[in-house]
Amino acid sequence: MSGTKLDRPELNRLIDNSEIDENGRGDILLIESMDRLTRLNNNDWDILNGRLKANGIKLVVLTLPTTHRRLDAKYQDDPSLNLIDTLLFEVWASGAREDYEKRRYRQRQGIDNLKAKNPDEYARKYKGKQPNTKNYEKILKLLDNGLGYKDIKESLGVSGTTIANAKRWRNQQIMNKDKDMIQMFTESELEKPNRLVKRGRKAIL
């Protein structure tokens, strides 16, 4: 589960399916590390954190031992401990985003250096993100069968952006196919004189 996007189908499904018991306690979300849940900017993290709280979901982070006590019900309602955890989550979420941005910056520096020093190697290694055509074909098949965005997102676990990309991909394929079907003429061919074509008894230019 990537932490860089706010709109994640599986995470959305997890939040939507969460439950609160008769004692008012919600589900526990166990994550390996904070950056697996979020590497979001501050605004998006506030939105995600608000959704988790609204659904009564409590976080337990394997790499953050102070949160492990949340597995014991008697500590879940302790306001002082919850306040400490909330502050730690904010610090860790901010640190995860900062680390993500630093790594992206360094990666961009390396790519730019390669592009400047060895353009051929750059062109060979960095062709851009290639579309997942198999996934697109599944999406398009469901669209053609009349399913809407919501049904497709739930069925395939994809985002609305991916569905829109699949539609654009098909339109591009159609455009490329149409271009291939257009006969292209060279300048020399356009300058050739018209030839007589005999049809029956009449000659037609």
What does this entry look like structurally?
This protein is mainly alpha-helical and 205 residues long. The chain has ten helices and four strands. The strands form two sheets. The chain has a two-stranded parallel ribbon with strand order 1-2. A two-stranded antiparallel sheet has the order 3-4. A hairpin with a 2-residue loop joins strand 3 and strand 4 (202-204). The protein is flat and about 70 Å long. The model is unreliable at 182-199 (pLDDT under 50).
Quick tags:
single chain; 205 residues; mainly alpha; two-stranded parallel ribbon; two-stranded antiparallel sheet; 10 helices; 59% helix; 7% strand
Q: Strand sequence of the main sheet, in spatial order?
A: 1-2
Mean pLDDT: 82
Q: For the CA atoms, what is the radius of gyration? A: 28 Å
Reading the helices and strands in chain order gives HEHHEHHHHHHHEE
Number of strands: 4
- From the N-terminal CA to the C-terminal CA, the straight-line distance is 68 Å
The biggest beta sheet, please?
A: 2 strands, parallel
Structural class: mainly alpha
- Which spans have pLDDT < 50 for at least 5 consecutive residues? 182-199
Residue share in helix:
55-70%
Shape: flat
Strand content: 5-15%
Instruction: Give the number of helices.
Output: 10
